[in-house]
Amino acid sequence: GNSVTQMEGPVTLSEEAFLTINCTYTATGYPSLFWYVQYPGEGLQLLLKATKADDKGSNKGFEATYRKETTSFHLEKGSVQVSDSAVYFCALILNSGYSTLTFGKGTMLLVSP
Amino acid sequence: DVKVTQSSRYLVKRTGEKVFLECVQDMDHENMFWYRQDPGLGLRLIYFSYDVKMKEKGDIPEGYSVSREKKERFSLILESASTNQTSMYLCASRRSGDSGTQYFGPGTRLTVL
Predict the structure, then answer these.
(1) Would you say B105 and B90 are in contact if contact means Cβ atoms under 8 Å apart?
(2) Among candidates A51, A99, A106 on the partner chain, residue whose Cβ is nearest the Cβ of B42
């Protein structure tokens, strides 16, 4: 089956630190990959996505590169802000028919001033 | 601005009660989803619907049912609420063929006493 594995949190950083949240996947087909973010008290929202190998998704200073050889989609940001404190979910979907998203368990990020 | 709304942010019910959670989207999306979110377990798919009057079981449908009589509305029903259904419930929608780009509501935190 399909699965997504994320590093466990919480990840605790000081403002302006470099962020990496690891994500690896297994898939029975050829997936598209996503990062969703959930700010406190809100639903999830799409942060970025990549649909094929070597694609780089980017948004709001975050980026992730689809690495087929290592089945990974690690999230990075060069300088985090307090406002980036949230839960981050890595997800995949197979590019076929009526597929549904498979989510990782989420990684909480806490950024202190 | 796209929007998914859920009928309640917080709900408290008693064991054995019938519970209705309502979700409405204003984007004319064909596909709609219900998830529950629990600490350490991430998001788990309960039911989804590809179109009006259609429904498909997700990963954890036991104890739940759904109704989709109109395109914009997707209801989750707990026939006889139990304490193990205490959770955060998230609704989402997406355009058919738009792969993994889903739009989420703010969630309903349900407590069953």
Answers:
(1) yes
(2) A106
